[in-house]
Each structure stands twice: as C-alpha cells, then as structure tokens.
Amino acid sequence: MSLSELPPLDAHAHIAADVSAAQVLGLGNSVVFAMTRSVREALYTLRPGAASGDRLVWGMGSHPGVEQTVRQFDGDAFAEAVSRFALIGEVGLDRRGDDEAQVAMFRSILRAVAGRPVLLSVHSTGRCGAVLDEVERAPHPGVILHWFNGTAAEVSRATDLGCYFSVNAAMSPASLERIPFDRMLTETDFPASRTKTGASRPGDVARIEAVLAERHGADVRTQAWVNLAEVCGRAGATGRMPMEVRSVLESVTPGG
C-alpha cells in the first residue's frame, strides 16, 4: 500500500454498540477505534449478526466518568474478556465521581492487561497526574493517553513512561505543542465537542490533520500511522487487529 493510500485514522471515537451495517459503511475508508463504556456494552458488539467492518476496531471499556459503570465493575469479568479484544478503552480516571472506586477499577484493569497484547485508550480528565501514577505503578507498552491536557512536566513524564497520545482539534494550541509529534495519533472523540473538533462523523479527522500539518509542516497521516505501528509493535497488538488494519500497519513498518 502506498503512503498516498493511507486511510484517515481516528484513534478514539464513540459509536453506538447497535450500529447498523449501513452506518458502518458510512464511515467510508476511515479506520476508527470505537470505545465502549462498560464490559456489557463491549460484549454486545461481539454478538452474532452485529455490524462490523475491517476498519472498525471495537474497544472494551469501563469509563471512569460513568457512575453506573464504576459501581457495577466486575474485575473478573473484565479480565476474562480481555482476550477477545485488541483494544481496551475507554478506561482511566476522571475528576468526577468516587475517586477511590475509580482507582480500584483502573488498577484492576491494569492488572488484567499486564503482559497482554492490547492497546489501551486512557481517559484522564482532571486526573492527569493520578493516571500517570497508576501507569508508572503498572506499566504497559500500549498506553495511548486520550485528549491529554497535562502540563509540560506531565507530558514529559508520560513520554518517559512510553505513552502515546491521541489528539483532536478541540485541544488548545498549548496542549498540542507539548506533545511530541512522533507520539501523536489523530482522534475525533466523536460525538463530543463536535463544534470544536470539526468532525462530522467518526473518522473525520480532517481538521486535526490540518492543525498538525500547519504546526509541523509534515505528512500528518503518515506520521500517525507510523506512530500507531510503533505502539502496536511494542504492545504486540498488531496481530489482533482486523486484517485490513494490519495490512496498513505493515505497510508503514520498515521491512513490513
């Protein structure tokens, strides 16, 4: 696959678990990492007859900002289901809700994915330092910090911990400036902040690509895929990706 044929990469978006096949086709040629908010929701995407696609990657999540998810979290059920997914997300910590319960849930998730070939899309709203504390406590090579608005020191710390970052056009210029270009992936977080991200649907990363191209003067899409190939390689997650996504990853990997 030539670099000019690389599809748009949306490394963090939300799609209803009951999405129809026609709606999946509406995503066009984009590759979308679709987050869920609970194990139950994630498992529903695997039901017989569920809509899927070679460019749609479902994540298994336990969203820290959803009170019911935190309250009903079952660590054993989560651990049992990890092998069915290449992507874990959305998980992490949030400034709202029960701090102690969220930390317990996130620690349980990090234990469940230890040594497993998965990527993790990690939420850190209002809890950037606390999230990094947990990642440092239980490192994983596949951590992707979603919409990370940490300080320069926190970004440096996250980079030293091996983290990658998925970024969108709603982020401030200061936040984007702090993040190394060779650790960036593009995202929409659709449908959140649609007016700020400029995304009309999951996979519509045109605005963030334009913002990053203006800042870095480089081929943003190619760099995003190179970065994704690197984090997938580190985590061992490449082989779990859908065949078409795997093909793109291999096309941007030296010797792939």
TrEMBL record:
InterPro entries: Metal_Hydrolase, TatD-like. GO terms for molecular function: hydrolase activity, acting on ester bonds. PANTHER family: D-AMINOACYL-TRNA DEACYLASE (PTHR46124:SF2). This is TatD family deoxyribonuclease. It holds the Pfam family TatD_DNase. Gene3D superfamilies: Metal-dependent hydrolases (3.20.20.140). It comes from Nocardioides simplex (Arthrobacter simplex). It comes from the Bacteria.
